[in-house]
Automatic annotation (TrEMBL):
Species this chain originates from: Paeniglutamicibacter kerguelensis
Limits of the Aromatic amino acid beta-eliminating lyase/threonine aldolase domain: 13-297
Keywords: Lyase, Pyridoxal phosphate
GO terms assigned for molecular function: threonine aldolase activity
Family: Belongs to the threonine aldolase family.
Keyword Lyase (UniProt): yes
Enzyme class: lyase
Cofactor(s) needed by this chain: pyridoxal 5'-phosphate
Keyword Lyase in record: yes
Lineage: Bacteria, Bacillati, Actinomycetota, Actinomycetes, Micrococcales
InterPro entries per UniProt: ArAA_b-elim_lyase/Thr_aldolase (IPR001597), PyrdxlP-dep_Trfase (IPR015424), PyrdxlP-dep_Trfase_major (IPR015421), PyrdxlP-dep_Trfase_small (IPR015422)
Pfam families in UniProt: Beta_elim_lyase
Enzyme Commission number(s) from the entry: 4.1.2.5
Annotated protein name in UniProt: Threonine aldolase
Amino acid sequence: MTSSLHDSSVRGFASDNYSGVHPEVLAALAEANGGHQVSYGEDQYTQRLGEVVNGHFGPEATIFPVFNGTGANVTALQSLLPRWGAVICATTAHINCDENGAPERVGGMKLLSVPTPDGKLTPELIDREAWGWGDEHRAQPLAVSLTQSTELGTLYTLEELRAITAHAHSLGMRVHMDGARISNAAAALGVGLGEMTTGTGIDILSLGGTKNGIMFGEGIVTLSPGPADSMKYLRKMNMQLASKMRFISAQLLALYDGDLWLDSAAHANAMAAKLSAAVAQVDGVELVYPTQANGVFAALPNAAADALRERFRFYDWDRAAGQVRWMCSFDTTEADVDAFVAALREEMSALQG
């Protein structure tokens, strides 16, 4: 007999990557494990995934399954740029803060980051770095990267996305969307995945899966002519080509061939809304950004945060400002939220004496 390696009764609020695998995804993996399938994407699961992606994003869309989100972002951006190209992004963007220089070192591109008040770019903010074309002394700004939902938990509206893509395209730039949490954004806005991407002029998408209940894997979805031509070579060169691709595709199929993506994301969003509403009533705790998807950002004394962290895992967002981030997942329960808020109240009361 072996002992349990974890306590499944306690769920943290550090990241939606902490959650397990959705039972329907596990079942899909088990089903895909039977028999032999052609390798490197010629299997029936990957072929079916392509059909599902066409249903969501349109007949011109092509999906390229990859291992992880950093690989998806770097490879997608490479397909938009020559070696002298640069990407305009928000300062808070994942590619700028959390990918350890992979866009620069592996992708060979320069990031031109722009400070934003809420994690969102605008045409005016893009223009701060959208200049210098033809100047050999400056990396050429040829792509814009957006995150939906953003790293601050905020959302671009469809109108904002259309304005950005129209502006970028008018300047000869193409637009990438980091959609690690695209399901949460679509659920919150009440729109389809294609309506938010193909319909707004996005050129290429990093399609999330891991943060919404799959074990591993993401997808790169090309939405406009051009990027797909180089993707098969870039994916291999970047060590993102899976030989047993059916196991990535089967998971993405379980998520997107039906409403599992939507149901799971909507539940995570609802738990974040419940957490946010409760936190707003705790004396001494202040919400920093509006809760629009599945993330809650709050400010509280570091001493209270540290004490609370002994019971629930979560991350500092800005230690100097006393800001923390709390994330909800597809498997977060109302009881999890209630227990967390009760502990938060205890720690704040103890600190206030």
